[in-house]
Amino acid sequence: MKIAIGCDPNAAELKNEIAEYVKSLGHEVDDLGSEDPIYAHVAIEVAEAVVDGLYDRGILMCGTGIGMMLAANKVYGAYAANVSDLYCAERACLSNNCNIITLGSKVVDKELAKKLVYTYLSNQYVYNERSGPKVDAIVEYEAGHSHRR
Question: pTM for this one?
Fold first, then answer.
């Protein structure tokens, strides 16, 4: 897979570690930045690149992962989940078809972050009777309400 990765300056060390780890798993990684203290800028850049199909998935990091998640989810077609445990990393893909995960550098250590990323990247969403209608409802709402500000 081709992965876009980015962070704010607080998470640069974790981002570098995760980028190398993802490469070691055989994925292509492009670093879209870590210099901008306004995390929304890099979150939006990564989300737009994923939605545009330039990347298969995205990984974003800041102190908690929450700000990156909120900013990425403002991009039409971006579905970002903040993950801090293995079950959520798995379900972000399998149940929710998330194309981006976010991590908190102050919340998860490097080893847990690697496990979260591995779990997320190792799974593939398959439409099914249980999760499919739930994901459809989110996508349908977004499509019908994207004009609101």
Answer: 0.93
